[in-house]
Design brief:
By secondary structure, the chain is of the alpha/beta class. The chain contains nine helices and seven strands, in the order βαβαβαβαβαβαααβα. The model has no long low-confidence stretch (mean pLDDT 93). The structure holds nicotinamide-adenine-dinucleotide.
């Protein structure tokens, strides 16, 4: 039980990586607050976890809205001391995000609002709770797009680069309170988001795209990222602060894609 009696808030925990983390953290003894915009998946995550005799509460929350996040953390505060904030929710607006010269202003603002402003809102209300608890762990979520250049998703990329930078400043600023801030940079994890953004089709069995890019030659699973999040959430990572850890099968270090294709 690596998170026994810990309270954890996970954004976007209805589906994908956030959902896998919610289920894993709950199995490790934590009480999970599922801060999720989509009611159906939020309630489903809560039901799945509580159905196993573990603890979870779904709070409908739009992480791009200050008021919504403020109300969510008021509920979290009533439950007891907060130990973990996992900023996971994001969107990738396939077909709307793109070259900076093509993105419409409302799309740019929406992506910045959900992917980046969310971290501002959540940290604003969660950090005082983490301080009150005597410390804890903040896990941010970037992407390979935050550390290498990926064309045609400039709004998404901007938010993920900012998330990397913000992780480092939060780690510097709040370490003195025993709050560690780290960041996971996933890529090619088999979730709805990737289905929508995979240029070679929406089938995870269709391996052309992934063969080209990942040295491991396969998709990652949400649970593989959740295991890393569990490490960062728990005391197992007690001296790790300010790191950006890729969970990407090696995509980010795979420089020469042309050679990989020939091999
Ligand atoms: N899957 C990958 O390969 C991959 C790659 C790079 C980065 N990431 C990052 O990992 C994180 C999780 O991605 P995923 O693949 O699990 O995505 P996903 O689309 O499967 O899940 C995202 C979740 O966030 C929720 N969400 C969206 N907007 C929200 C809002 N305004 N308020 C609250 N919740 C909201 C969605 O309803 C959904 O449950 C994201 O930050 C994403 O950018 C994933």
């Amino acid at each position: 039980m690596r998170l026994a009696n810990k309270i954890c808030a996970i954004t976007g925990a209805g589906k994908g990586i956030g959902r896998a983390a919610a289920e894993l953290f709950a199995a490790e003894g934590a009480k999970i607050f599922i801060l999720e915009f989509d009611e159906k998946s939020g309630f489903d995550a809560e039901k799945t976890i509580t159905g196993k005799g573990q603890q979870a509460v779904f709070i409908k929350c739009d992480v791009s809205s200050n008021d919504s996040v403020k109300a969510a953390f008021a509920c979290v505060a009533e439950a007891g001391p907060l130990h973990v904030l996992y900023n996971n929710a994001s969107v990738y607006l396939n077909g709307k995000d793109g070259l900076i010269t093509d993105i419409e202003p409302d799309i740019w603002s929406r992506v910045i609002g959900i992917n980046l402003n969310s971290i501002y809102h959540c940290c604003r209300y969660a950090i005082p709770l983490l301080q009150k608890s005597g410390g804890g762990s903040i896990i941010n979520t970037a992407s390979s797009a935050g550390v290498i250049g990926i064309p045609k998703c400039d709004a998404y990329t901007a938010t993920k680069g900012a998330t990397v930078a913000l992780t480092r400043s939060l780690a510097s600023e709040f370490g003195r309170y025993g709050i560690r801030t780290n960041c996971i940079a996933p890529a090619a994890i088999a979730t709805d988001m990737v289905k929508e953004s995979n240029p070679d089709g929406d089938d995870f069995d269709s391996v052309a795209f992934i063969n080209l890019r990942t040295p491991l030659r396969r998709w990652g699973t949400p649970d593989e990222v959740a295991q890393l999040a569990l490490f960062l959430a728990s005391d197992d990572s007690s001296y790790i602060n300010g790191t950006i850890i890729a969970a990407d099968g090696g995509i980010t270090i795979n420089g020469d894609l042309a050679k990989v294709k020939q091999a």
